[in-house]
């Protein structure tokens, strides 16, 4: 016997109208093969998918910004302390021509 029967009008087959939004997410669709209802369903699903993905991206950017902002003051103070230490103890106070005996 035949284990699989292919009915082109069955919406629940992999090529049927029920799966069109899923396949259209990956760019695989042919609008001529489907009726108006399926095309409307496909475009509605794609629109809401795009809105949800953009919303997710904005939320991720906001979360990253909050993490960076929370650590920014401590990082600024650390970098400032390193610069002050460098100018106080590492960089010499005399101009380059006169500091040769000090450096050597």
From TrEMBL:
TM annotation in the entry:
40-62
**Species the sequence originates in:** Haptolina ericina
Superkingdom of the source? Eukaryota
Task: Cite the entry's keywords alphabetically.
Answer: Membrane, Transmembrane, Transmembrane helix
User: What protein is this chain from?
Assistant: Ion transport domain-containing protein
